[in-house]
Amino acid sequence: MRRRDFIRLTGLTGAGLLLARPRAFATLPMVSAALGGSSRYGHWVVRGGLPAFVYSADQDALPEAEWDPILAPKTRRHWLMVGNGAVRMQLANDGTVALFDEGDGLRWLTGPDPVGTGVSVVVDNGDAWGSDFSMRGAEQVVLRTFGPTWFEVRDTRDQLRLERLIVCPEGEAPWVLVRVRLTLAAAAVAPRTLQHIERWALRPRFVNLLESADAQRQRAMLAVAYAVEAGARRVVAHEQFAAVDAGGAVGDAAKGLIGPPATLALEALGDTMGTTRGDGVPHPTLEIETGISLDPGEQRELWFRFGRDTGDTIDPIALLRATRRGLARRLPRAGAAQAPEARHEIPWHAAMLSGGLNVDRVLGGHTLNQSSAYEFSIGINGAARDPLQHALPLVYIDPDRALAVLRNTCTWAMPNGDLPYALDPAKQPNNIGFRPSDQNLWALWLAAEYAAATGDLAAFDAPLAYHRLYATDAVPLREHLRRQFRFFIDFVGRGEGGHVRILNADWNDVAISDAGIDRQVMIDHGGSVLNSAMAAWVLPTFAGLADRWGDTALAGEARAQGEELRQLVAAAWNGRWFHRAYAPGAAPVGDSDCWLEVQPWALLCGAADASQAAALLATIDQGHRAGSPLGARLRWPARQDQVDAGTWGTSTAGGIWYSINMTLVWAASRFDPALAWEEWRRMTLAAHSAAYPTIWEGTLSGPDAWNAPEYSRPGRTWSAAPLFAMQTFPVNNMHSHGQPLLAYLRLLGVEPTARGTLAVGQGGRFRSPTFSLATSGHGQLAARGPVTVESVHGAVAGDELVRW
């Protein structure tokens, strides 16, 4: 492409052109080999051998710190969610936190609006200050450190240093541990007497489906009151439901939205003593006040815990040590010469991904909500494909949790194998208008990958109940999967050209409207080349698992279906790329522009020969990827009128999607490894911070998709219609963590095969408690049953510790 043609197509000039150079000249200067450093908000450090981010900026003094959540007022509050499997904690630059629990439904135990809670207040000579940024000491920079499962605030006033650490303990404790250190400088001229107040405000907030206004949430909150008991070391708040006259008996409605009442407790631990209290309002503030005397050079530690009351006794010092050791053991380590960022981003992504897990007290197992705006604004756990794909990298990090997510998501299905689009905030199936045709494929894929990497065939014999809504008997997990296969083959079936029927969506929720073809025609007869290409890879891979079950008939049918679909996808090549979809009487969708989502799957399923693959990747490199620091755009070429208006390059109209670029990295690794590694580096947090250093989202976490450089808000995320704005909660989408993890493993050649085996390659390092791979291609895995590993050094089989 000539330089002036590139400018005409993209509207980019200056620095944007640097990334449009041929890859031989592009060294991706935007990505530093160090631990970040481009963000205006702080820098990465290593704590306990793991990455953490020190937020050192004064957001009040930085104009660019203010951002627009679209559906809420502009704010300077920047946050991140971390968790431990039972509770999730929102950490924010204002020094506050908020607790979220989705065990019974989607709810904040402490409200995050407009700010969080969980702060230290120090009263020193009548002067009150503390960890809340609005009460900062103002003598120096306030350091707020975001850790993988913890948050620390450090501040100083008048030679008194405050260090506040809040930790989600390892395991599944539904509460957080707090350590407060107060240190008087040795240079102080006299002892100091002061009071420390540990403060948590109970402001319940309940997420309701597709609710933009606060009115219903407020009514639900008012339906909750607390009975407070203040003791010597504990102050406990017992939730109670009450009927509130708001045009009806909201108390009963709130019960369905909230789940069972919670008992919340703030407790002093260890040697910490103090005065407990909770004010008498319906939503009280729980406090423990402790008097302290400090000599110059003396340090005092206070310990607390807050959250759901479990009534057990703990040693806080021992628990913190065990948590640090457990976290260091649990999180994977990685490294690759081609991508230095992997050293700190792989363990960080793993922490964010596992922090999204939550014990499901309704359906069993663990849910792995896509989170971000889907959970906290829209109010869904969905689509069903999302927890399934987010669990894929957990197969190599925490296989127990990967299996728990597979089981949990399979319970959503109807007994005929039909997976709903989502669960609502009360964990009830709800399609909210979407009827996608690809969901079963993700369950079959996760099952096959889990079996190939663990050998745990016994897991598929264990009984699993369906959602209690269906009132039917439990069946073995393998029967769930067999029924899902049958639903995909028999009900989803085939559409135009023999391709998998699209129904009203496939991966792309708005594929039909984007295609511009009559909606009902597409629903009834439309064929999705994307689904055909994906199924052409998934079904033979699932067949490898069916063979191991001894179900040769199921395996044979899955292979035959996969091969037929592969041939149909091969015929969808238009000389430049693969078509996207077909409908009777209409031109092929994706003939004049290239829809990226189908292209990697066409390569992965074997539908392209070597020359087609090379040409296709060159087209993607010179078009979708050109000038885009965060990775390939979903569509190319751009519409010039929309580029000129700044409306092109967002959502499915040219946005940059983690889930699609993961498959691009995977497919490219087979044909052009250099392009694949470079695309992975554009998925990194370091790449976003370098390209957009004043945007908070992308610093530690991100959404499911980024806006392209051409869009009016580049480097941020989509804000489509009211109620569906990802920008309302643009961090902690599990795609921004699960997809870089899975893409990295694929770059190392780690993937299941159609033979039911696990393939591994070489070229980078990865080490977790259950799976390790060296740059040389040697490694080991802890199997739970018979596995066969096909490595560059040959095949090896075993059923316990397998080395190659």
Question: How would you describe the overall organization of this protein?
Answer:
There is one protein chain. 29% of the residues lie in helices and 23% in strands. The protein contains 22 helices and 42 strands. Helix 16 runs parallel beside helix 19. It is globular, with a radius of gyration of 27 Å.
Provide the low-confidence segments as ranges: 1-34, 244-251
Using the coordinates above, name the CATH class of the domain at 77-328: Mainly Beta
Residue share in helix: 25-40%
**Biggest sheet statistics:** 10 strands, antiparallel
Which structural class do the helices and strands define? alpha+beta
Mean pLDDT: 91
CATH topology annotation of the domain at 77-328: Beta-galactosidase, Chain A, domain 5
Question: How many strands?
Answer: 42
Essential attributes:
alpha+beta, ten-stranded antiparallel sheet, Beta-galactosidase, Chain A, domain 5, 804 residues, 29% helix, single chain, five-stranded antiparallel sheet
